[in-house]
Design goal:
alpha/beta; Rossmann fold; 7-stranded parallel β-sheet; 14% strand
Length: 257
Amino acid sequence: MDLRDKVAIVTGASAGIGRAYALALAGAGATVVAAARRLGGSADEPADASSLATVVRAGGALPGRIYAQACDMEIEADVIRLVEHTAVNFGRIDVLVNNAAVLPRFDALAIAGEAWDRVMAVNVRGPYVAIREAAPHMKRQRSGSIINITAGAGNLAPQSNFPGFLAYGVSKAALNRLSLFMSSELKPFGVAVNALSPGVVASESALRANPAVATSGTHKPCTPEVLGPALLCLAGQTAETLTGKILHTDEYQKSWP
């Protein structure tokens, strides 16, 4: 996939799956605005393995460029600023990857209202605001691809109950519904909207939330080489080629595209 001359936003890009996606897009030639809460790389905020500064450095030799932008998806003004910054500085927005999410575990009958609200704010409201702000730019271009990163926990008929992940599962189910609604809303303007599940990935957040991931036997490494191909395929789609789908990375080149 050649994405030269394309501009992409990836949220939650400082580590894990988002980092892999940012590097994959830059590897395909795209200009990538990588967003996360922590920039890193300053005297007050040193760079570490989970900072945007580290991602920018990792992409230094790739065909595309990665630029860092601080953004807390729980704060609406931050999300608005992220999209505005991208449009003003790079002139267009071709790809939006809504990856940022929180993955807490709770007893299903003991979730505080504040904790529930935070999961929904980051995992659902944040992606909605990003779409709301990016869509006018894509509509003017008559092109674009929005990719919402979902999870099996959001399926209507999951294979298991995903103990501890009620709030997370509900948020991903809502994200799936948002994806389907927006695909219809934006199809007349040539904009593709799809949801992509990366599957069981040995990311830092997944291992913290559920250490059993490391020994599951079904997990995949959190690298652009493994996670990138499915995302890059969706990044190149239009409303005419592929939209309104909830897809799984493991099914790429099997049941889709």
